[in-house]
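Quick one, tokens below. Sequence please?
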């Protein structure tokens, strides 16, 4: 099928596009710059200029495609509310364009935080707190199942990683350790972070596009929950710096999220779709080094 991918040159989109093409799909990728357009074309896709705030380009992309994968998000933690609002408007636009078509739309959401247990695909999205708006946006996508759209949400953990390029939330820990000479964790460091290699996540987005029933939630979770302290210690081992507990405020707004325990499970996803992660774990990628230089 011809697939419209937003965020096609981003950290996840840049591996989803070749995953789709290798499986025989065609890709129309939303891009904001010449460099992004070149990257999408080099991967075998067709660039479409625009961004998440360009609603006309979103409509055009959806109308030209047999399915949609939405991966674009601002990731500007200094202006999180605006990013969530932009995502909401984009999803409403895509939903209107796809209503009644029977086409699939797959949205990249977030694993929820469930006090007392690892979150599962059957748990509701987190709709309060710093990133609660993103949970509400995922709900909008799932509701499209009642409007003739084969909608699904692939929930991603906070650390989507690959050695030498991306580390999700751990990128913040790496940069802070490079800058300060201390590898820090929040509180007692027992809070758990789930993770997935971005190549394994890319495969699950393809699976959801091809096979997920309307209203399906999938979890792209390979590691159910490494403690924040163990992650800080892995970083410290590579950078040869000490490990230290710090208050959440040391990391700014995002520190409130760092303080939360957020383990997650993908048992139902693996059972239903036969998805099995095969690429290195977050701890393995951290221990291997190859960290991006501090900009």
């Amino acid at each position: 099928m011809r697939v419209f991918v937003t965020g096609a040159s981003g950290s996840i989109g840049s591996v989803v596009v070749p995953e789709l093409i290798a499986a025989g799909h065609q890709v129309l990728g939303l891009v904001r710059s010449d460099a992004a357009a070149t990257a999408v074309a080099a991967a075998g896709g067709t660039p479409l200029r625009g961004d998440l705030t360009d609603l006309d380009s979103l409509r055009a992309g959806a109308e030209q495609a047999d399915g949609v994968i939405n991966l674009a998000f601002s990731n500007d933690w200094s202006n999180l509310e605006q990013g969530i609002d932009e995502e909401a408007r984009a999803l409403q636009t895509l939903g209107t364009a796809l209503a009644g078509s029977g086409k699939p739309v797959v949205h990249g959401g977030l694993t929820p935080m469930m006090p007392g247990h690892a979150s599962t695909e059957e748990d509701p999205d987190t709709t309060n707190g710093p990133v609660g708006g993103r949970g509400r946006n995922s709900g909008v996508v799932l509701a499209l199942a009642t409007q003739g759209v084969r909608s699904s949400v692939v929930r991603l953990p906070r650390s989507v990683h690959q050695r030498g390029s991306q580390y999700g939330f751990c990128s913040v820990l790496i940069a802070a350790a490079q800058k300060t000479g201390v590898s820090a964790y929040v509180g007692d460091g027992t809070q758990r972070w789930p993770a997935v290699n971005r190549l394994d996540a890319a495969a699950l987005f393809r699976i959801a596009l091809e096979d997920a029933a309307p209203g399906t939630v999938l979890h792209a979770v390979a590691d159910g929950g490494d403690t924040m302290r163990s992650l800080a210690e892995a970083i410290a081992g590579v950078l040869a710096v000490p490990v230290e507990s710090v208050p959440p405020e040391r990391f700014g707004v995002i520190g409130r999220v760092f303080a939360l325990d957020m383990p997650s499970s993908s048992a139902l996803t693996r059972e239903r779709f036969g998805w099995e992660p095969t690429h290195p774990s977050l701890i393995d990628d951290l221990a291997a080094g190859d960290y991006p230089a501090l900009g």
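Residues 80-98 form the longest helix (19 residues). The two ends are 39 Å apart (CA to CA).
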